[in-house]
Automatic annotation (TrEMBL):
<dbReference type="InterPro" id="IPR029033">
    <property type="entry name" value="His_PPase_superfam"/>
</dbReference>
<dbReference type="InterPro" id="IPR000086">
    <property type="entry name" value="NUDIX_hydrolase_dom"/>
</dbReference>
<dbReference type="GO" id="GO:0035539">
    <property type="term" value="F:8-oxo-7,8-dihydrodeoxyguanosine triphosphate pyrophosphatase activity"/>
</dbReference>
<dbReference type="InterPro" id="IPR020084">
    <property type="entry name" value="NUDIX_hydrolase_CS"/>
</dbReference>
<dbReference type="GO" id="GO:0006754">
    <property type="term" value="P:ATP biosynthetic process"/>
</dbReference>
<dbReference type="GO" id="GO:0004081">
    <property type="term" value="F:bis(5'-nucleosyl)-tetraphosphatase (asymmetrical) activity"/>
</dbReference>
<feature type="domain" description="Nudix hydrolase">
    <location>
        <begin position="10"/>
        <end position="136"/>
    </location>
</feature>
<dbReference type="InterPro" id="IPR015797">
    <property type="entry name" value="NUDIX_hydrolase-like_dom_sf"/>
</dbReference>
<dbReference type="Pfam" id="PF00293">
    <property type="entry name" value="NUDIX"/>
</dbReference>
<dbReference type="GO" id="GO:0006167">
    <property type="term" value="P:AMP biosynthetic process"/>
</dbReference>
<dbReference type="InterPro" id="IPR051325">
    <property type="entry name" value="Nudix_hydrolase_domain"/>
</dbReference>
<dbReference type="InterPro" id="IPR013078">
    <property type="entry name" value="His_Pase_superF_clade-1"/>
</dbReference>
<dbReference type="Pfam" id="PF00300">
    <property type="entry name" value="His_Phos_1"/>
</dbReference>
<keyword id="KW-0378">Hydrolase</keyword>
<protein>
    <submittedName>
        <fullName>8-oxo-dGTP diphosphatase</fullName>
        <ecNumber>3.6.1.55</ecNumber>
    </submittedName>
</protein>
Length: 297
């Protein structure tokens, strides 16, 4: 499982995407021209302070190309020095979905769609060629299944009453708001949750923006999770639901992720732990998981 830390520090942090359209076997890729540098590259830009890196990637792609996208696999980040400081740029594979109204970028004057071979010859920077190879090294048309651990909800021992009714605290509410800026990148249309209030609340801001119901399942709760049948149930959702997000507990999700990836993923996942408000993304195609990623909020 690859970890992607999300908050800019002294590092200059930027984010973008390799946006594709058409036949995933022979896609066209969006390149942008920046007149200031007279270069051809992939859409990207700086992550704002306090902005999740995924939200930053979505915003920058929209600003530079006018496109909304559906994110696929995370690609190897690019590091280079700029003005004596290290800069990291995180990229994702991203399928173009629709043209959206956005403020035009003053950094980009043209966007062109090109087939792979023409992209290779048009790119200005060598590292962008490595990104293009990484993009085409695994399937493009994957489907995301997200497993989300609920946000902070205070101390269990300080709560008086039914633990299923323990709500998010202020930090957890902030995490739920951040998660609502991340999930649009994956466009989950099915939302499934433990019935615990803190889990439902974690998905609620995203659900409200999309007018989506949240389906609750007692077998995802801490008290009723069944390790013998839970993974089969969730793998059934993975196979049937299309893009989906599930919210559960720290005592349930690591075992669930471990079992799902043991059955469906040819790679190795060393650590399946999720922090509160953390997200694991399983990208799958034809019943097999092809990439596993982990993000914090």
């Amino acid at each position: 499982m690859t970890d992607q830390q999300v908050h800019p520090t002294a590092l200059i942090h930027a984010a973008g995407a390799l946006v594709w359209r058409g036949d995933p076997a022979e896609p066209e890729i969006a390149l942008v021209h920046r007149p200031r540098f007279d270069d051809w590259t992939f859409p990207k830009g700086k992550v704002k302070a306090g902005e999740h890196v995924i939200a930053g990637a979505l915003r920058e792609v929209a600003e530079e190309t006018g496109l909304s996208v559906a994110l696929g696999r995370h690609l190897p980040p690019v590091h280079y020095l700029k003005g004596g400081r290290l800069k990291r740029v995180d990229y994702w594979a991203a399928r173009a979905v629709e043209q959206v109204a956005s403020e035009p970028s003053d950094e980009v004057d043209r966007t062109e769609w090109l087939p792979i071979e023409q992209v290779r010859s048009r790119l200005t920077y060598e590292w962008d060629g490595a990104l293009l190879r990484a993009l085409m090294a695994a399937p493009l048309d994957t489907t995301p299944f997200l497993l989300v651990r609920h946000g902070y909800a205070g101390a269990r021992h300080e709560w008086q009453g039914d633990d299923d009714l323990r709500p998010l605290d202020d930090n957890g509410v902030a995490q739920a708001a951040a998660i609502a800026t991340v999930l649009p990148g994956y466009r989950p249309g099915s939302l499934i949750s433990s019935p615990s209030k803190r889990c439902v609340q974690t998905l609620l801001p995203y659900a409200a923006t999309r007018d989506l119901p949240i389906r609750t399942e007692r077998l995802l709760s801490e008290t009723e999770y069944d390790a013998a049948h839970g993974p089969d149930m969730v793998l059934g959702w993975l196979d049937a639901e299309g893009p989906a997000a599930l919210c559960g507990h720290g005592k349930v999700l690591p075992e669930l992720i471990a079992t799902m990836t043991e059955r469906r993923y040819s790679g190795h996942v060393e650590d399946t732990h999720l922090r509160k408000g953390g997200i694991a993304v399983l990208h799958h195609k034809d019943g097999q998981v092809v990439a596993v990623e982990r993000y914090n909020t």
